[in-house]
Amino acid sequence: MEKVEHRAARAERIVREAGKLALSFFHSPDALRVERKGHQDFVSQADREVEMFIRDALDAAFPDDGIVGEEHDRVSGTTGWTWVIDPIDGTTNFVTQIPAWTVVLAGVAEGRTQIGVIYDACHDEMFVATRGMGARLNGRALAVEGGKGLREGSVGTGFSNRVPTDGVARLVTGVLAEGGVFHRNASGALSLAYVAAGRLLGYAEEHMNAWDCLAGQLLVAEAGGCVEDQDADAMIEAGGRVIVGAPGAWDDLLRISEAAFAAG
């Protein structure tokens, strides 16, 4: 079996090319077809075409691996590896010309995310993590600063249309009550990458799908942050809550999040 670092390098190249394709759509908004999937949930022509580009590239590189994506049917594999794709995380931003969206790819094996790639094509920022080998931003090693508490930075928050809105309202209220500040950029994957880069103290969302979070959770963990232990295969099947944070903010963010999400 190909070494994980070789798989990670190939995945990074695929995502970078996919980002170029996505960027070409982003720069031609008048020609972009957009559909509504649900409340505050959109899909564009770019989402579908970028995912097919990634699927075709993965099939050429790893023909026996499984593939799970947001916009197209699941493909079973025989190697024990599954690739999880979000072609454009932050579609609402994408279709409204806000440069805060990412192309996301995670490689899962043995119930754990082994590879995470998040590419912010608008700013040419490539976040890559390989289990046990650290996290990098454009080749530079990432290390979460451990000592900052909630009062010393911002916490990312997410909105999910799969759960009642009360939870995120309680989360924001709880963060503010502790002297913190909340931040939302409408791309959960990008927010998770920002935690790994030390730009946010943490991130919490009551429910995320696997394609939105697996790569980012690995990035945070490999950068030295705190992440809830979850089975990646279970997340692929049903999704779940996501809470990550810098060590100094982790205990407080976990307590606030659990209270906010449990109350419903």
How does this structure look, described?
By secondary structure, the chain is an alpha+beta fold. The chain has two domains: 4-141, Fructose-1,6-Bisphosphatase, subunit A, domain 1 (Fructose-1,6-Bisphosphatase, Chain A, domain 1); 150-262, D-Maltodextrin-Binding Protein, domain 2. Helices cover 39% and strands 28% of the residues. It has helices at 4-26, 45-61, 91-95, 166-177, 188-196, 210-222, 232-238, 247-262, and strands at 34-38, 41-44, 66-69, 81-89, 102-109, 112-120, 125-130, 134-137, 140-141, 154-157, 181-183, 202-208, 226-227, 240-245. Strand 6 (112-120) and strand 7 form a beta hairpin. The termini are far apart.
Give the helix/strand layout:
Elements: H1 4-26, E1 34-38, E2 41-44, H2 45-61, E3 66-69, E4 81-89, H3 91-95, E5 102-109, E6 112-120, E7 125-130, E8 134-137, E9 140-141, E10 154-157, H4 166-177, E11 181-183, H5 188-196, E12 202-208, H6 210-222, E13 226-227, H7 232-238, E14 240-245, H8 247-262
Parallel strand pairs: 3-4, 10-11, 10-12
Antiparallel strand pairs: 1-2, 4-5, 5-6, 6-7, 7-8, 8-9, 12-14, 13-14
What labels describe this entry?
264 residues; alpha+beta; Fructose-1,6-Bisphosphatase, Chain A, domain 1; D-Maltodextrin-Binding Protein, domain 2; 2 domains; five-stranded mixed sheet; globular
In the CATH scheme, the class of the largest domain would be Alpha Beta
Mean pLDDT: 92
Which class best fits the helix and strand makeup?
A: alpha+beta
Describe the biggest sheet? 7 strands, mixed
CATH superfamily of the largest domain: Fructose-1,6-Bisphosphatase, subunit A, domain 1
- Measure the end-to-end span: 45 Å
- Side by side, the strands of the main sheet go 3-4-5-6-7-8-9
SSE run: HEEHEEHEEEEEEHEHEHEHEH
According to DSSP, the number of beta strands is: 14
Could you list the spans in which at least 5 consecutive residues all have pLDDT below 50?
38-42
Count of spatially separate domains:
2
How much strand content do the residues show? 25-35%
CA radius of gyration: 17 Å
Count of helix runs = 8
* CATH fold-level topology of the largest domain: Fructose-1,6-Bisphosphatase, Chain A, domain 1
Q: Which outline best applies?
A: globular
Helix content: 25-40%
CATH architecture classification of the largest domain: 2-Layer Sandwich
